Amino acid sequence: MRPRIPALVFGLCVLAPAAACAKGNAAKVFEKAVKKGAPTPTIVEAAARLAESLDPKGVQSLVRYGALVEKIDVYIACRDALSQASGKAFAALKKALTSSKRVEQRVLCVDALGISQEPGAVEALGKALDDGAKPVRIAAIRALRKQERREGIPLLYGRLSAVGFDSKDAEAEELYDALYALTGQAYENLSDWQKWYESVGPDYDPKKQGNKGDGVSTLTRKGEGKIFGSVVRSQAFVLCLDISSSMRVIDLPPGETWKDSKGKAHKYKDPDPSGRKPPHPESRFSKAREAFIKFIEGLSERARFAIVVFGDKKDTKAWKPQPVKATKRNKKAAIDYVKKLRWSYATRTDLALEEAFKIQGVDSIYLYSDGIPEKRKGGATVDIPADEILERARTLNRARKLKINCYGMASSKAMREFLRKLAEENDGEYKDLRVR
Predict the structure, then answer these.
(1) Which of 124-128, 134-138, 255-259 is the least confident region?
(2) Is residue 311 part of a domain?
């Protein structure tokens, strides 16, 4: 027996749920639930009802309204419902992908096609690779990778040829990653890709043979330099720097300890318990700041960057509201800004992400932190649940598709796990920077 839609769907299904939610009415139920701000479970249930007998009108409702609801659970429900489209409904989904004006709506269509079993899904995703909005293209690349179909491979290397095999942009990196996952190859010119594709024949199955090749590369790709030892393959990004007071400590080599005034042993040394002195040259703060400065100095003028610093609420802010070109003047101004930074109580990682996502025109975030997310409350600091921040990141990133890379210098296992998961869920890299 099908579950009844809750009475919270504003009376449409209260008296006769089956009749009210029959084909033709299910779309109205969903639309009204969204417009009236129904509880998330109610909207999710309405989306599930639509999936049971999805028609072109239902597709239109899911794309038009579902993509704009901020809750990630609603987004996933709409994506899953749209992935069930077939026949006329599938044709409507493909049309929505090209005709929808809002990026969020087109991204939702792409995400649905990424898990669709319809034969025409790959072809539709190939068209999305030429979309004018970068988040849509990134979503299409990831969707083709998820599809794991042979016919998606030439679409990907064709797009890579158009972007440029020597491009330093994040889109090129996404394409390289997808192609390597599907083929195990890393060719860097079109003719080599075409020869390889012809040589494997029509029976090649990425699900069975992907990522098992020799990784042949015909060129050496270069990025925008390195930060914390990682090559930055983006030319539009946000640098997020933790300025919490714990950054003043000096990490000690393994086996060494330092005792505080109460005799408690630590794996780090605190050269300034009062937090009033300038940063020690060997402190976490100084090392992170030096890494940011060195990286900014080496940026090419093609790059655009932004900076967000985070500590307490009042000290969590963006240097500029939008990314700036890496001209000599802007790089000097950014470096001067970073050099003048001082401590702040608390670690508002949640607000740092909020500020980073306000910045438009970027495709990557590079976040450095050394402590558990926490906020000030009643004169004390209290932890912010990691799950809350992870869910917020999923919501913020549902249509942006930013790559979040995390770097940490914390001894806390919980902190390392949080940063690892934040990076992993957002297609980024996590690197542990502790002293070994």
Answers:
(1) 255-259
(2) yes
